Amino acid sequence: MPLGFSRSIFSKQAAAAAGPRSSITVNGDAQVDTARSKFGGASLLLDGTGDWLKASPSTSGDWDLTGDFTCECWFNFDAQQYPNNSIILSSKETSSDSSSDIMFIILRNEDVPMRLQVQVGNQSLNFLGSGLISADTWIHVAISRSGSGSNNVGIFCAGQRIGQITYNGTVSFENWGMGALSLDGALPFNRTDSGWIDEVRLSDTSRYDPASSTYIEPTAAFTNDANTLLLLHMNGSDGSTTFEDDEA
User: What is the mean pLDDT of the segment spanning 47-52?
Assistant: First the structure.
C-alpha cells in the first residue's frame, strides 16, 4: 500500500477518534424536511423568518484557508421575492461585519433575471444567472479556488462557470452560516417564503477548475474524503433538528 494512502486513512481514523471536527447550531425553526430533497430523501427547510444553521470547527482556525478550497451546496426556493436578498452560504457573521477574509453567496432575487452576489475576501461581484436560476428547481452553486495568481477563483452554477475573480489571501469559514448571516440571522433565505438547502460541503481542495467555462454537476450525494472539512447531507426524520457532519 502506498505510504501516502496509508497516512491519509490513518489521519481520518485519528480525527474520528478525537471527536467531532465541527459543531452545528440550529437557529429558529430550521429543520429536516423529507418533502423535498436533491439527494438522500431530505433537506434543510428554512421558512425565511429567522431560520439558519451555523457551523464552526471544533478547533479555531481549522477553516481559515490560505490555499485551494471549494464551498458548495444545492439550493431550492418556492418563489421569487421582491425586494429581497437572501443568504445561501456565508461566513459574514453580522450585517456590520467588515472582515477582509469573509465569503458569502447571496441570491439576489430582487433582480430580473435573478443574480448571485458573491464575495471572496475583499472581492465582491454580482453574477448574472443567465436564466440558470429559477424557483422550484434544485440548483448547484460552488466557489472554487485553485492555486494563486489571476482569475484563480471560479464561481459555478448549474453546470456553468458564471464568473471568475482573483483572490490570494486567507478565506475564513469560521462561524459559517447556512440560510442567514451566522450570528444575527440577517438576510434569511428565502424571506417571506420557504427555501431548502441540501448537500453542503467545504473542502480544502479545488474540486472545480476555475479556468474551465463549464463543469460537471454532482450526480450523487457527496462522499467524505481526505479533503472534506464539513459535509452536511441534511438527512433525517421529518421535522428533526439534528444535523450531523459526515466529515467526522
Answer: 89
